[in-house]
């Protein structure tokens, strides 16, 4: 069995589904409510998974592999940037943490889209709270590492040495 782009796409889809499944588990069974930055990271995992799923189904030639890889790379870099922002917020001294903002539902129903989107991307005091750790790292830390791994897999899927 050789490594092909389709195996890499399947791996990316499986990883994203596993990460999203665990996020939903912690939300609905462990009671951890996601902050705006967590929801944004989930959206980028979904976008990465959908791109990989389409590539898995289509099985593109070399140019299509570059396009799929580029799209996955953009979504993983964006998601990793959001995760990094949350890690940065969590590392701030308590007196420098921004105030907690309104709920996501309130923002999108009462604020103009641009302002709600900006608030969502910047995060608030809720995003600085650490409520879950594994080996001393918070969920945004693990999310950031996952985005890095997915970005490397996306790059590998476009390498010419990977057999079709």
Automatic annotation (TrEMBL):
The keyword Nucleotide-binding does not apply. This is Disulfide bond formation protein B. Its main location: membrane. One of its GO terms (biological process) is protein folding. It comes from Zhongshania marina. The lineage of its organism: Bacteria, Pseudomonadati, Pseudomonadota, Gammaproteobacteria, Cellvibrionales. Required for disulfide bond formation in some periplasmic proteins. Acts by oxidizing the DsbA protein. PANTHER family: DISULFIDE BOND FORMATION PROTEIN B. Residues 1-8, 61-66, 161-164 are cytoplasmic. It comes from the Bacteria. Disulfide bonds join 35-38. GO terms for molecular function: electron transfer activity; protein-disulfide reductase activity. Residues 26-43 are periplasmic. One of its GO terms (cellular component) is plasma membrane. InterPro entries: DiS_bond_form_DsbB/BdbC (IPR003752), Disulphide_bond_form_DsbB (IPR022920), DsbB (IPR050183), DsbB-like_sf (IPR023380).
